[in-house]
Write a structure and sequence with these properties.
MgtE N-terminal fold, 6 strands, Tetracycline Repressor, domain 2, cell membrane, magnesium ion transmembrane transporter activity, CBS_dom, about 450 residues, 3-stranded mixed beta sheet, CBS-domain, 3 domains, mainly alpha, magnesium
Length: about 450
């Protein structure tokens, strides 16, 4: 719906029309629409959302808008939202809010909810425990299918998902049953006779990125989370895993661009904060170029003897940087998808070496012929051709080795992406170029 029309309805106090519009809109679309309002309009519009949809809209709003609503809503309104919010969404909200608003949320929660929230908040930030929900459907093995369906009808409205049910005995996970199995099986069959006992699960301390990979790998809608004693404490649903994957991809993209990652949206971050996140890496990369400059200075005599050498420096540096970036990007992606591990180190090197040899020879022949035809200097053509082959090989090998070593020592492989790789390759390509030039021309 057009924002201007919606605002006009609010200003004219045609609240019934606004309610009718909100009643048929999707919760995600409502959250997106409210994101364009100022604080006063936001609070008014939110109060007109049907109660059964309000929590879903709230969960899909940006954290800055959630903060505004937590601050302006009454205790009763806040409690109604929290009662309908799934526990993992409540925890996500608390992680984003300032301390004074967190206190307000906890005060509006019941004792049991507060206990669960505090337990979830105590898990490490990047663990499965921090993103799991404790609201799942649990069944006993001795129940019949008919009894299980009755139990789901009674309690399912308060659960995050009913498509996968968990069979437990004294909190020990015995098996899982899908809604499809329940709906297609006779009512008098026991749950223990149809449950799946080959269970894929994770622990509370499993990295949340690994949880997302497991869900994607096995095409699951939810994944059970077990504590150190093997007891079921929660589940991670596919929508939460999708959020993790988007978050990790965003973080990797920013690191690959030499920018410190932020959980806020582009417009939520001020110009000063943007600058602060970019300056450190830019300073590091700028001062690292001193190495390249000192190498060039060292070969001033070569420039004096053959001035034409200088004109090919940008081409060699750019080619080397581009080749290194290609390899590092592919390897970082492979690592992220668990397609490449450190055990594949020599396989990766051998493959990239063959690729670089083919690429290097093609580029060398093309540039060698161009230089010979343009300048009629066979020696210069040979120097550039050899330099290109050596530069491409070294750049591609560095591009695959650095991300793998970064992963091995516990660093994010994305750190070894374009800007850093380019800076390292620039220095190596200059060294290779002048080494070959001085040998060929005997400078």
């Amino acid at each position: 719906m057009n924002k201007d029309i919606f605002v006009k309805l609010l200003q004219e106090r045609r609240y019934k029309s606004v309610k009718d519009v909100l009643d048929v809109m999707n919760a995600v679309d409502i959250a997106s629409l409210l994101g364009e309002f100022d604080d006063k309009e936001l609070a008014l519009a939110f109060r007109l959302i049907p109660k059964e949809k309000a929590a879903d809209v709230f969960a899909n709003m940006e954290s800055s808008l959630q903060s505004v609503l937590v601050e302006v809503l009454s205790e009763k309104e806040l409690k109604e939202i929290l009662d309908d919010l799934y526990m993992d969404d409540t925890v996500d909200l608390l992680e984003e809010l300032p301390a004074n608003l967190v206190t307000r949320i906890l005060d509006a929660s019941g004792p049991k909810e507060r206990e669960t929230i505090n337990k979830l908040l105590n898990y490490p930030e990047d663990s499965a425990g921090s993103i799991m929900t404790t609201e799942y459907v649990d069944l006993k093995p001795h129940l019949t299918v008919g009894q299980a369906l009755a139990h789901i009808k009674e309690t399912g409205i308060h659960k995050e998902t009913i498509y996968t049910c968990y069979v437990i005995q004294q909190r020990k996970l015995l098996g899982i049953v899908s809604a499809k199995d329940l709906l297609t099986t006779d009512d008098d069959v026991l749950i223990e006779d149809i449950m799946e006992t080959e269970i894929i699960s994770v622990s509370t301390l499993t990295d949340k990125e690994e949880v997302a990979h497991q869900l994607r790998k096995y095409d699951l809608l939810a994944l059970p989370v077990l504590d150190n004693d093997g007891l079921l404490v929660g589940i991670v649903t596919f929508d939460d895993a999708m959020d993790v994957m988007v978050e990790e991809a965003t973080e990797d993209i920013t690191k690959m661009a030499a920018v410190s990652p932020s959980e806020k949206t582009y417009f939520e971050v001020s110009a000063w904060e943007h600058a602060k996140r970019r300056i450190p890496w830019l300073l590091v990369l700028m001062f690292s170029s001193i190495i390249t400059g000192s190498i060039i200075t060292r070969y001033e005599n070569a420039f004096a003897a053959i001035p034409l050498l200088v004109s090919f420096i940008p081409m060699l540096m750019d080619t080397g940087g581009n080749c290194g970036s290609q390899s590092s990007t592919l390897i970082i992606r492979g690592i992220a998808l668990n397609q490449v591990t450190f055990h594949d180190f020599f396989r990766v090197i051998w493959k990239e070496f063959r690729v670089s040899l083919i690429v290097g020879v093609v580029l060398a022949v093309a540039n060698g012929l161009r230089i010979y035809l343009t300048y009629q200097q066979a020696g210069m053509a040979i120097v550039i051709a050899l330099s290109l082959v050596a530069t491409v090989i070294s750049a591609k090998l560095l591009g695959c080795i650095l991300p793998m070593f970064a992963k091995k020592i516990g660093l994010d492989p994305a750190l070894m992406a374009s800007p850093l790789i380019t800076t390292i390759v620039d220095a190596s390509s200059i060294m290779i170029y002048f080494f070959i030039a001085t040998k060929v021309f005997r400078l």
